[in-house]
Design goal:
heterodimer; A: about 525 residues; alpha+beta; D-Maltodextrin-Binding Protein, domain 2; Dipeptide-binding Protein, domain 3; nine-stranded mixed sheet; four-stranded antiparallel sheet; globular; B: about 325 residues; mainly alpha; MetI-like fold; 2 domains; 12 helices
Chain lengths: ~525, ~325
């Protein structure tokens, strides 16, 4: 009898639990219907823009609560347009005046003016955060009058206004400069204010619209929740079950979600291939020969990998830059799938029997590099894959452990890519290969305000780089966002991995721009 | 009992010291460099060197450990290497998630495992017993994360009865809290219930074969009285031990299952901390994990004494 009673008790407890569970709000009837719920795999690092990197920190967090003097044009996210500045005037090659919007206040009530803007620029320089090298030309700033700030440069910098549209150029309330919790409690002028009380670090960050942004285009933005879901499967499940409305995903999940009828936004932002670190052949002598490096390019069937591994969310390519500065149309099909030519190049280099080298590969990228490995094996090149820990690519590059790197660098902004990858002092050039031609071309281009000169120089630059294979590009890869197309509109992937959250609107509010 | 508690608590300090040193050592052996993560891959050598000096990374290993230990002894476990979130805040934020899953899993394990084990033990060789043994074998063989994925598909994706991801604190809504941990608890509880069923069944069978049980029956004590008054109480001793083991196992299992359900618990915190080389956070996670395990073991010892007075010290 006691046993039977115990069994009933257990059954009742289970039933009560299930009843309580199913009695909770189902995802479909969520009161969050008026919110944009975004699933990202990138946890918040800091809300202090002057100490933040760009990439997802910029696009998923900072851009919601801060404004820059300039911002990126949603239609062309490499082009700076006025932000808190209403425009700009170059007084000479190293001085620019930016008139500012009036009547703007930070979320703590502090008025935004030229003094605040100048103080921010000085703080940016003083703190020397991760992105300071992108605005290294900045010497200082001063207030011309209450609503005009003047930037002083050490040398001409054609990319300054672009880089000021990213995290370095975001304006923080000067009253909050010394706040110990500024990194977790932002004070900006952005279209949203951060709801710290209802957020949980590492899990969800909630942003409420202020409704009073200086730019009318950002006054009707919906509330945004950024859910940190580092597991890919969990992110997809959350989307399918209606817990989130939009998520960044890999090609595998994108293909599955597209089949289920979700909207998909994509932008080719990164390239896939190798950067040849040992171009001088110090550790792996064959890689010192440009013919051998070219053989690596002709040996691989790019289109097959794009279809089979990336489900079509990639396209065959030969050059690092996509359409825009540094893109050379003639190089588009420089490498084709031609194993016979690869073997001939190896034979000409005295390597008819092939050679071997080791490549560091992140666990998430192992499938695509195994595909490359198979093609290279077919022409006699033995690529040994060493799986490395996430976050160690730069460490391995610096330590010269491997002759190549497999990082997928962004395919735009050659001005910042040169010092990072190909210059004689770049972190991704640990063997110190120096090519005077590209040094000169980049140096001229990076200090010139003459767009035609910049275009010409970078075309020559990438002609050398692609044909002599400093980096070997196989594919241009899409960054992908899948979303509930019935709920959201205006969804586009930006240049920094994530969707441009400022542009997303609820489809139900059809009057919203970009819907 | 008080002496037992005092001994165990006193033993906690040297244990934490050893664990903190081992953790610090292992984290230094993990490949990678926090500077690469903070600065990004475009950092200049100057930035790299400057940050290393700021974080004290150029100091010898023992100096770095000593610095951490000195602060920890003053009750300051530090802040995240990335922002101003204190280690204590990070741990306390995530603890409810993992504890909810652990005890949810234990609840499922107890509710299913113990009654099944008792029934199977009392009806040894019968159909139910054979089914229970088979189910327990399968239940123990199934990885928690796999069960979690299998559960999520129908309950969260097809029927949307329960959320696929996320955690709601019980302070916000008890029903939403139960819903948020239900699938993960069942996934975790599957192996726990299997282990408990096997152990309970074995213990019941063992006790029923003891001489004092046979003697009681010979004295004419009813079967029901023998079972509930003598057999089950004595069979509870090894079961309590198993429960202790299972709680520790569930804590570990929760770290994996959290990933499947997008729950920001200890597991997510630990994995992120290792991935980003956030040593202060990782130290905090390990310290707190150690304390929890010690507390669970003390609780098991106390329960042991309760079910079996002969085990009470002194």
């Amino acid at each position: 009898m006691t046993l039977r009673r115990g069994g009933w008790l257990a059954t009742l407890l289970c039933a009560a639990w299930l009843a309580a569970c199913s009695g909770g709000e189902s995802p479909a009837s969520s009161p969050d219907a008026a919110r944009v719920r975004f699933g990202t795999n990138n946890p918040l690092v800091t809300f202090d823009p002057h100490l933040a990197d760009t990439g997802p920190q910029f696009s998923s967090y900072l851009t919601l609560v801060y404004d820059g003097l300039t911002e990126l044009d949603p239609a062309d996210p490499l082009r700076p347009i006025p932000g808190l500045a209403t425009g700009w005037t170059w007084r000479d090659a190293v001085t620019v005046d930016l008139p500012l919007h009036q009547g703007v206040h930070f979320s703590d009530g502090t008025p935004f003016d030229a003094h605040a803007a100048a103080a921010n620029i000085e703080r940016l320089i003083r703190l020397a955060g991760p992105r300071i090298n992108t605005v290294a030309s900045l010497q200082g700033a001063s207030a011309v009058d209450d609503f005009t700030v003047r930037l002083h440069l050490r040398h001409p910098d054609p990319t300054l206004l672009y880089n000021l549209a990213l995290s370095p150029g975001m304006m923080v309330s000067p009253a909050a400069f010394d706040n110990a919790d500024l990194d977790l409690n932002p004070v900006g002028t952005g279209p949203w204010r951060y709801d710290k009380a209802r957020s949980k670090i590492g899990a969800v960050h909630r942003f409420e619209p202020t409704g009073a942004h200086f730019n009318p285009r950002h006054r009707d933005v919906p509330a945004v929740d950024v859910h940190v879901l580092t597991n890919r499967r969990a992110r997809l499940n959350a989307l399918i079950s209606g817990q989130i409305d939009i998520a960044i995903v890999s090609p595998t999940e994108a293909a599955a979600a597209e089949d289920l009828g979700f909207g998909i936004a994509r932008r080719a932002n990164r390239w896939f291939g190798f950067t040849i670190l040992d171009r001088i052949g110090e550790r792996t002598p064959p890689l010192g020969d440009a013919r051998v490096r070219q053989a690596l390019g002709f040996a691989v069937d790019r289109r097959a990998i794009a279809e089979a591994v990336f489900f079509g969310y990639a396209r065959a390519a030969s050059q690092p830059m996509v359409e825009g500065l540094g893109h050379v149309p003639q190089l588009e099909n420089f490498f084709t799938y031609d194993p016979a030519r690869a073997r001939a190049l190896l034979t000409a280099a005295g390597l008819a029997d092939g050679f071997s080298f080791a490549a560091p590969v992140l666990p998430d990228n192992s499938v695509e590099y195994e595909a490359v490995q198979g093609y290279l094996r077919d022409v006699g090149i033995d690529m040994e894959i060493t799986v490395i820990e996430p976050g160690t690519i730069a460490t391995h590059a610096r330590s010269k452990t491997f002759p190549v790197s497999t990082i997928g660098y962004p395919n735009f902004d050659p001005d910042s890519r040169h010092p990072a990858i190909w210059s004689a002092t770049a972190a991704f050039n640990p063997f110190g290969h120096r090519d005077e031609r590209i040094e000169r071309l980049a140096e001229e281009a990076r200090r010139s305000l003459d767009e035609s000169l910049r275009e010409r120089n970078y075309q020559q630059y990438f002609n050398i780089l692609v044909k002599e294979v400093f980096s070997l590009v196989y594919l241009q890869l899409d960054d992908l966002a899948i979303y509930d197309a019935a709920k959201l509109c205006g969804v586009e992937v930006g240049r920094y991995i994530d969707p441009m959250l400022r542009e997303i609107r609820l489809a139900a509010r059809a009057e919203a721009p970009r819907c | 009992m008080l002496r037992l508690l005092a001994t165990r608590v006193a033993g906690l300090a040297p244990l934490l010291l050893i664990v903190s040193f081992l953790t610090f050592t292992m984290l230094h052996l993990v490949p990678g460099d926090i500077r690469d993560i903070i600065l990004g891959v475009d950092a200049t050598p100057e930035q790299y060197a400057e940050l290393g000096a700021k974080l004290g990374l150029d100091d010898p290993f023992l100096v770095q450990y000593g610095r951490w230990l000195g602060r920890a002894l003053q009750g300051d476990l530090g802040t995240s290497a990335y922002n101003s979130q204190t280690v204590v805040e990070a741990v306390l934020d995530t603890l409810p998630v993992t504890l909810s899953l652990t005890f949810g899993g234990m609840f499922v394990g107890l509710v299913i495992g113990v009654p099944a084990g008792v029934y199977a033990g009392l009806h040894r060789g019968g159909l139910v017993d054979r089914i229970a043994v088979l189910a327990a074998t399968v239940g123990q063989a199934l990885p928690n994360f796999w069960v979690a994925i299998l559960l999520a598909i129908p309950f969260a994706l097809w029927w949307r009865l329960l959320p696929a991801t996320g955690f709601t604190p019980p302070t916000e809504s008890v029903s939403a809290w139960l819903a948020s941990i239900a699938l993960a608890s069942v996934a975790l509880g599957t192996s726990a219930s299997a282990a408990l069923a096997r152990q309970t069944r074995g213990a019941v069978i063992d006790v029923l074969g003891r001489e004092y049980i046979r003697a009681a029956r010979a004295r004419g004590v009813s079967k029901r009285a023998v079972t509930f008054k003598h057999a089950l109480k004595n069979a509870a001793v090894p079961v309590v031990t198993t429960i202790g083991f299972q709680v520790n196992g569930l804590l570990g299992g929760a770290l994996i299952v959290e990933q499947v359900f997008g729950l920001h618990g200890f597991g997510a915190l630990a994995i992120d901390a290792v991935r980003t080389q956030d040593i202060p956070i990782m130290q905090g996670v390990v310290m707190m994990g150690t304390v929890i395990i010690v507390v669970v073991n003390i609780a098991v010892d106390v329960a042991y004494g309760y079910v079996n007075p002969r085990m009470r010290p002194g």
